[in-house]
């Protein structure tokens, strides 16, 4: 060690405290010290301790001891080299200054086009903070770990100038919070070698101005022609269109063939026309209310999606702008899911050919929790999309009256992305060339590292939140600044004229040309490919315009059932199963042979096996869904002798047949909203995969209600978007309390209309088998909400003989008669849905009530009127009809089905209710009270009709 220290002339014992401090910082975080010191200390780690032993105090003892010994032996050398030591210490301080600019430079960058505040004082960016003064400015220091110059040494003055140009100009970059040194060096090289200054040709500059002209021109055209109509103008943020243009072109050059875009309202119409190439005349027709109204409900124009194919230097690129409701950021997981489906279809696991792009407003990006939930998916296996490019249209005001001090608790609106170490490029929107450069860097980073990256375009909003708003009421000083601002296009046009890139009238000629295109309703981008169709495009035509039908041929031959059963119960010979799982598979094998009835888990498994064997993919995700929350599924088996996922697990459903379709099962992160949104997005892009989201408990869907309301329930009537997503929501009253009983059936019933979705509560193994197969076999796609059981998963009542799988189909209505009953002797019909049917059957046997028939409605919506009416007609002498449910009276299906039931009753029949009384809570938390309520509702089902009674 002594020899190692002596090889460095500036390391002397007198400097031991300083080096000791530096060494401790290195031990705490190696990235916190300059590169040359880090390399030095890396070598030190491999040097034996001073006493020659193998053990050492890694904190600082070797450093202190070595310097102490050296101080005694080299007192004369210490004096002789005092100058060297001073220079060495200054070198360290210069390295610290460089590090500070890399970390904190963005805080001093020139980012605000309105220049409303002075640059903050950042002491760490001042040379004086490191005891560096004006007298040091012309001293030469090592620049070996920078990329400013090819020279090894630079004066402090040159280094400081380079740092300020690179990190404190109109671009401020945050990347040092990452932990990957390769990525940090990548950013340092890309930024420092150019000093964050773009270098564009004259033609490229003209193109940027043309994009700014298009962005501003469309807004002003609409502002003049459609005065006061909402459009959520982009004025003040026109550089965003230049960024989008560059992103598409750069992506195409990098091999991307599909881009899925999610964005809210601000600038959406501009993107539709100036990025995706929507015909202006079609947009004008929407403003004029002359556009065709082909949907039951439709939506406002700034929620609409669109797709097109555009030409790039790398070939055609398909652009898809997702439909977006007013819950601004909820589209994020939907876009990611759509991108994932496209990746899977292409066999593109790393996202080389598919790019998700998310466009955010500053306030929503910082404020809405779905942003964080979606970011949390970014690096997980089931949801990885190869990195997302995030563009923030940061108008510095948020909605209408927000002050940054009230709109977030972080310095930047983008700080949430630091949770996944995503780099952020903040850029002044008044420097469109810098915006384009940042876009290039972001795209290059994403393609190389397959991670998320953010471009935060700091701009302003010329008008209010919408065109009917007056923001100066609450932001008078800000809007005085905005009123004086000439506009980004004007500033950049003047710059190009001054540079000689354009003649004096060049910018005005661009404005006139764009205005002419608007008047004629022509395309504003060139070229849009009108006849191109990718081989990976999905044809939804076979699933559209179909009439609703409950019928589907879902039975399978006995031989195929047995073959599938054998495949899903076989594991490799060296695979060690847990004894409990071993018994489950043995029992399932017996079910497949017809020796015992099939239980719920096996019925579900056989449905998946039959689908993947027939060419339909299956994607199943949710919390604990591999095993199943209630330990009933066992889709993923774990070797008891190994734990590594790649060698310690076996998925039988991935080994059903040669050339089978994929079966993917994912234990998701603890998220409902983002994961459900992701799966909806996946299903919206992939009609040939059975896409399923399973809630751990049905009421956990509460946390994803926005996805349910704004996409699943209404996406088809608003946007014409078919979707076959399946939701498995465990539901049932077994005394588990308010949060583990109800999947809130009433909420889904309230949302049901226009045949928009299916609401089903199956009660047997064969029913779930036929239901899941029906979802894919029928020639249309509708969301399917399954209120799946908990106690029935292992109940003997819910098992089914093998014959029910080899014939028949999903039955929307089923009737149970007492073994000794005759249909014409029935006096009361009890209608119900769900597991309560088995409680009712047992109660009927207990009471020997042979004159009671029980009709269970397995499909609550669309209500099966014909099948239900046919069952009711079987009992012409029944005078009383009762709807019985487990849920409280103000919840469950009662208020929604009573008119359906009433409609199909016979003349003179009376309709009553049996169930729990109205409640503010879904269920009681006291076990004894639950039992009392359950007993009471069953007695009520067979007792005298009370309370509200309807007569036919």
Automatic annotation (TrEMBL):
Residues 598-795 form the Transketolase-like pyrimidine-binding domain. Keywords: Glycolysis, Oxidoreductase, Thiamine pyrophosphate. Its cofactor is thiamine diphosphate. One of its GO terms (cellular component) is oxoglutarate dehydrogenase complex. GO terms for molecular function: oxoglutarate dehydrogenase (succinyl-transferring) activity; thiamine pyrophosphate binding. It comes from the Bacteria. Its EC number is 1.2.4.2. The keyword Oxidoreductase applies. Gene3D superfamilies: 3.40.50.12470, 3.40.50.970, Multifunctional 2-oxoglutarate metabolism enzyme, C-terminal domain, TPP helical domain. InterPro entries: 2-oxogl_dehyd_N, 2oxoglutarate_DH_E1, DH_E1, KGD_C_sf, ODO-1/KGD_C, THDP-binding, Transketolase-like_Pyr-bd. It holds the Pfam family OxoGdeHyase_C. It catalyses: N(6)-[(R)-lipoyl]-L-lysyl-[protein] + 2-oxoglutarate + H(+) = N(6)-[(R)-S(8)-succinyldihydrolipoyl]-L-lysyl-[protein] + CO2. One of its GO terms (biological process) is tricarboxylic acid cycle. Belongs to the alpha-ketoglutarate dehydrogenase family. E1 component of the 2-oxoglutarate dehydrogenase (OGDH) complex which catalyzes the decarboxylation of 2-oxoglutarate, the first step in the conversion of 2-oxoglutarate to succinyl-CoA and CO(2). Homodimer. Part of the 2-oxoglutarate dehydrogenase (OGDH) complex composed of E1 (2-oxoglutarate dehydrogenase), E2 (dihydrolipoamide succinyltransferase) and E3 (dihydrolipoamide dehydrogenase); the complex contains multiple copies of the three enzymatic components (E1, E2 and E3). This is 2-oxoglutarate dehydrogenase E1 component. It comes from Rubrivivax gelatinosus (strain NBRC 100245 / IL144). The gene is odhA.
